[in-house]
Amino acid sequence: MSGRFTVALAGNPNSGKTSVFNALTGSNQRVGNWPGVTVEKKEGKFYKDGMEIKIVDLPGIYSLTADSIDQKIAVDFLIHERPDLVICVIDSSNFERNMYLLTQLIEMGQKLVVALNMSDIAEKDGILINEKKLSMILNCPVVKTVAVKKMGIEELKAILVDELRNSSYRRKSEPLVTYPNAIETSLTKIMEKIKTYQTKEINLRWLSINLFLGDMSLLKILNLKDEGIRREIEKIVLQETIDLQKSLGEDIDILIANSKYSKIREIYNSVALRKSDTKASVSLTAKLDRLIINKYLGIPIFLAIMYIIFTLVFSVGGFLADFIDSGMTNFGEFLTRNLESINTSSTLISFLVDGVIGGVGSVLVFLPNIVILYLLIGLLEDIGYMARAAFVMDRIMQFLGLPGKSFIPLLLGFGCNVPAIMATRTLDSEKDRILTILITPLMSCSARLPIYVLFASVFFQKHQALVVFSMYVIGIVVAIAVGKFFSATFFNSTVSPLIMELPIYRLPRLGYVLLRVWQRSSMFLKKAGTIIFSVVVLVWLLSSLPFGVEYASEKSVIGYIGKLVEPILKLPGFGFWQAGVALVFGFLAKEVVVGTLGTLFGGEDALRTVLAGYFTPLSAYSFMLFSLIYVPCAATVAIIRQEAGKKWAWFTVFYTTFLAWLISTLVYQIGKFFA
């Protein structure tokens, strides 16, 4: 049998779902040892036995209750797209918690294959699961996998092919989970009422259970003729809920969850065998967590780790950056000599040397620093520390009245603000989402690093790591302060605590980490070859026009643009037009700030010398602060518009720019006063 089929991949956050996706499709989607890596649908394909099987990696979710955007994405896909089959990925070492989602998928009537992932970790913990017995209980195939090692993946593919060929699939008529008699009676009443309006895409029992849990939005998938019928169904559900809570003396959602977990424990006890010789001592993860997430030591340890990272970024990356810098300078001089020897146009020489090498080259010099940063952050992610960092900072977030889960997207912002803003989809409250989106651009992304490295190497040579480290700390502090102000004025929402799974510590998977470093670094190089190149060419052209004026002078077009913003920048301490031009074009991409300065001042080597004549250490630090806080790049503004709307995108542009001007002005003027 040949054909095209769609298979959805569902599972809890941090269950190894994306690793299964990568192993099945050969893709290289991001894999992280902390929750929330997948916040949108991702697709891949594989071919077997003449069949094209599309795999859709759904966001990691704990249940099918659509409380947050990532859960809604998953539920909507399962209801409306109706995949031919669903692979439910279960973390074998956390079997009971992961099974909750599986019970919901069974109630939903999905055709299922269960992947018992991380079975090696479960066995190390002394847990042996009888997959054949589990398969009989669930009435669906079960296969053990270790996705990161591609163990069990071929068997999983073969099972998928067999199940997709079996079009006569029928689930058992009796439900896996039964509820107290009173609830079952009410469910029957509701199913009787709505069965007239049933569509092929929905299972009546699952729909009735979720209506009980308060998700009335699901009624839109029924074939309701008018609003009156909808209100009548809502009234019946509400009345049944009230009657049940009075008679049973407990919330319906708690009773339903208890029934599910009771069945899950029954299944676990029948299929799982725990080795009698398993050590009862505290695991290594628990021992390390006593120190790393300690109430008093957690934050100092986090800050110490970040400082060590930036020290290595400069000590190791700086040596390599100097090597590239020297190469760029020598290449520029070599190119100039050879082009002049063959009477090449001075305009072309200026374009190649001042524009391309001076602009793009001044950014590429910092590639080693960025690679080292990506590598170290990637190692922290993979060993399981970044989830702890979010947990540690939650205490500060709670104290300031901010949602605890918000710190996870903020941490992602250290890499890039765009995926960080997309990660806010995991937040349950719309107010929390908007609030977190508004403060995420204040986190210092990697695109700002070339600016910091350049100015720190010129003005703070003995304290480079400390100065750059301060930018990241200030970004966090400003984000928290702004978030506190916004939550108290615009949103005034209740604080939601951070509830998340802390993954076990593990040795970093060097292959995955290096792959991730390559992906991020190649994106930087691609940006250098497209956006940054295009901008520096534009800057060079505007610096050369009108023809006949001195290159990059006040009388050039670029000089006129710079003169427009120059007065605004005098109070922060860098009131010269070249700085204004760099910041204006930096809106397109933050790396362009350095590229623009390099184009205007003639390359990396000359740039370092020239900057010392324009800036003082105080004004340089003020410029770094402005670059940290002011308007996010165009891609970030676009994703804010997509996720929060045009109003909040424009608000972010204006508030960040004003805040940048205010803070840099205060720092410069106060510093100048005391100096």
Automatic annotation (TrEMBL):
<dbReference type="InterPro" id="IPR006073">
    <property type="entry name" value="GTP-bd"/>
</dbReference>
<feature type="transmembrane region" description="Helical">
    <location>
        <begin position="531"/>
        <end position="553"/>
    </location>
</feature>
<feature type="domain" description="FeoB-type G">
    <location>
        <begin position="4"/>
        <end position="166"/>
    </location>
</feature>
<dbReference type="InterPro" id="IPR011640">
    <property type="entry name" value="Fe2_transport_prot_B_C"/>
</dbReference>
<feature type="transmembrane region" description="Helical">
    <location>
        <begin position="467"/>
        <end position="491"/>
    </location>
</feature>
<feature type="binding site">
    <location>
        <begin position="57"/>
        <end position="60"/>
    </location>
    <ligand>
        <name>GTP</name>
    </ligand>
</feature>
<dbReference type="InterPro" id="IPR027417">
    <property type="entry name" value="P-loop_NTPase"/>
</dbReference>
<comment type="function">
    <text>Probable transporter of a GTP-driven Fe(2+) uptake system.</text>
</comment>
<feature type="transmembrane region" description="Helical">
    <location>
        <begin position="400"/>
        <end position="422"/>
    </location>
</feature>
<dbReference type="InterPro" id="IPR011642">
    <property type="entry name" value="Gate_dom"/>
</dbReference>
<dbReference type="GO" id="GO:0005525">
    <property type="term" value="F:GTP binding"/>
</dbReference>
<feature type="binding site">
    <location>
        <begin position="117"/>
        <end position="120"/>
    </location>
    <ligand>
        <name>GTP</name>
    </ligand>
</feature>
<feature type="transmembrane region" description="Helical">
    <location>
        <begin position="356"/>
        <end position="380"/>
    </location>
</feature>
<feature type="binding site">
    <location>
        <begin position="36"/>
        <end position="40"/>
    </location>
    <ligand>
        <name>GTP</name>
    </ligand>
</feature>
<feature type="transmembrane region" description="Helical">
    <location>
        <begin position="574"/>
        <end position="601"/>
    </location>
</feature>
<dbReference type="Pfam" id="PF02421">
    <property type="entry name" value="FeoB_N"/>
</dbReference>
<keyword id="KW-0479">Metal-binding</keyword>
<keyword id="KW-0410">Iron transport</keyword>
<feature type="binding site">
    <location>
        <position position="26"/>
    </location>
    <ligand>
        <name>Mg(2+) 2</name>
    </ligand>
</feature>
<keyword id="KW-0406">Ion transport</keyword>
<feature type="transmembrane region" description="Helical">
    <location>
        <begin position="621"/>
        <end position="641"/>
    </location>
</feature>
<dbReference type="GO" id="GO:0046872">
    <property type="term" value="F:metal ion binding"/>
</dbReference>
<dbReference type="GO" id="GO:0015093">
    <property type="term" value="F:ferrous iron transmembrane transporter activity"/>
</dbReference>
<keyword id="KW-1133">Transmembrane helix</keyword>
<dbReference type="InterPro" id="IPR030389">
    <property type="entry name" value="G_FEOB_dom"/>
</dbReference>
<dbReference type="InterPro" id="IPR041069">
    <property type="entry name" value="FeoB_Cyto"/>
</dbReference>
<keyword id="KW-0813">Transport</keyword>
<dbReference type="Pfam" id="PF17910">
    <property type="entry name" value="FeoB_Cyto"/>
</dbReference>
<feature type="binding site">
    <location>
        <position position="25"/>
    </location>
    <ligand>
        <name>Mg(2+) 2</name>
    </ligand>
</feature>
<feature type="transmembrane region" description="Helical">
    <location>
        <begin position="648"/>
        <end position="670"/>
    </location>
</feature>
<feature type="binding site">
    <location>
        <position position="22"/>
    </location>
    <ligand>
        <name>Mg(2+) 1</name>
    </ligand>
</feature>
<feature type="binding site">
    <location>
        <begin position="11"/>
        <end position="18"/>
    </location>
    <ligand>
        <name>GTP</name>
    </ligand>
</feature>
<keyword id="KW-1003">Cell membrane</keyword>
<dbReference type="InterPro" id="IPR050860">
    <property type="entry name" value="FeoB_GTPase"/>
</dbReference>
<keyword id="KW-0812">Transmembrane</keyword>
<feature type="binding site">
    <location>
        <position position="23"/>
    </location>
    <ligand>
        <name>Mg(2+) 2</name>
    </ligand>
</feature>
<dbReference type="InterPro" id="IPR003373">
    <property type="entry name" value="Fe2_transport_prot-B"/>
</dbReference>
<feature type="transmembrane region" description="Helical">
    <location>
        <begin position="296"/>
        <end position="321"/>
    </location>
</feature>
<dbReference type="Pfam" id="PF07664">
    <property type="entry name" value="FeoB_C"/>
</dbReference>
<keyword id="KW-0342">GTP-binding</keyword>
<dbReference type="Pfam" id="PF07670">
    <property type="entry name" value="Gate"/>
</dbReference>
<keyword id="KW-0408">Iron</keyword>
